[in-house]
């Protein structure tokens, strides 16, 4: 695992990326940094081009834990250690690749459980892992366990109730057999998204963004000592949201984690690298990490370009990678 930079009161310090927890403080663990179809792109493997896609073909020869170009669906785990020493584990989004992320990164970083879940929206790459939550809950054939709190919008709740009715129903119908399923405690984020909520001791401020002009998605702002904004699916920032996270608005972020789908051009429902860099220049965080990348991005080569951009613009920016652990003082 490559070196990782902790954030403590906004300062950057070097730290080795060893397995397990490094110290006793909080940390951000990137469970996934790829697009909805993930990387490698399946088409590159079943119908290889000539020459083959370098990023995707590499996945066949290098183990994923040593390949920063192997990317699962975007998901962040917050290993939150409060001031009283209590540790909680909060996940933002549980997509199609959630089980793979658990097997790979929960074991590597010694994550013992999930205390709460926060959803950005109800698309497949954010919610289709909900069924697998049962695998990380205590075993009970009668479902007699404490449910995991899950925070989401009313729109997401209605969509999930259609996709996963058995995860939402409160009582069995007469004659219906008990089947072991994930136990979830659904908590609706207030409609206007202007009030914070607390998940497992950590305060989150919803950040409404456009994910295409016909769809509202949420990012989240969290952290008191270090301010972090996580925005995984965005094509445009409403002015109020950009003000909240901008240096020239409500105050500078210590870390911005931001969507970046393709290297060139534009896309109707996501930021691509040109728009991502422009947004970062406007928002002006102390540091930015990019997520949601397709196979167009080669981790090492493109991080060299981003390092040059960082030196020129005075904002440290890099591509994140699956399994990256960033110690941070929340």
UniProtKB/TrEMBL annotation:
SUPFAM superfamilies hit by this protein: Metallo-hydrolase/oxidoreductase
Pfam families: Lactamase_B_2 (PF12706)
UniProt domain Metallo-beta-lactamase: residue ranges: 89-292
Tree of life domain: Eukaryota
InterPro entries hit by this protein: Metallo-B-lactamas (IPR001279), RibonucZ/Hydroxyglut_hydro (IPR036866)
Protein name: Metallo-beta-lactamase domain-containing protein
Originating species: Gossypium darwinii
């Amino acid at each position: 695992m490559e070196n990782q930079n902790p954030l403590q009161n906004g300062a950057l310090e070097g730290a080795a990326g060893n397995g397990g927890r490094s110290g006793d403080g909080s940390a951000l663990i990137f469970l996934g940094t790829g697009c909805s179809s993930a990387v490698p792109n399946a088409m590159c493997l079943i119908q290889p081009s000539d020459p083959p896609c370098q990023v995707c073909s590499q996945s066949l020869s290098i183990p994923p834990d040593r390949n920063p170009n192997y990317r699962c669906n975007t998901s962040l785990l917050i290993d939150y250690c409060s001031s009283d020493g209590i540790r909680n584990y909060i996940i933002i989004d549980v997509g199609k690749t959630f089980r793979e992320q658990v097997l790979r990164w929960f074991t590597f970083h010694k994550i013992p459980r999930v205390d709460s879940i926060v959803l950005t929206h109800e698309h497949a790459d954010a919610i289709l892992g909900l069924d697998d939550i049962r695998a990380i809950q205590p075993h009970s054939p009668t479902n007699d366990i404490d449910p995991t709190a899950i925070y989401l919008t009313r729109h997401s709740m209605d969509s999930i109730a259609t996709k996963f009715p058995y995860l939402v129903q409160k009582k069995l119908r007469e004659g219906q057999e008990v089947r072991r399923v994930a136990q979830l405690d659904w908590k609706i984020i207030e409609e206007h998204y202007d009030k914070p909520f607390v998940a497992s001791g950590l305060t989150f401020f919803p950040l409404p963004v456009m994910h295409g002009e016909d769809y509202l998605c949420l990012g989240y702002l969290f952290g008191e000592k270090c301010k972090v904004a996580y925005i995984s699916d965005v094509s445009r920032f409403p002015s109020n949201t950009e003000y909240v996270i901008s240096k020239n608005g409500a105050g500078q972020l210590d870390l911005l984690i931001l969507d970046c789908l393709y290297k060139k051009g534009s896309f109707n429902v996501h930021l691509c690298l040109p728009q991502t860099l422009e947004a970062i220049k406007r928002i002006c965080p102390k540091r930015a990490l990019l997520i949601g990348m397709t196979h167009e991005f080669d981790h090492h080569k493109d991080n060299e370009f981003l390092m040059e951009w960082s030196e020129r613009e005075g904002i440290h920016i890099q591509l994140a990678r699956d399994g990256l652990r960033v110690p941070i003082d929340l």
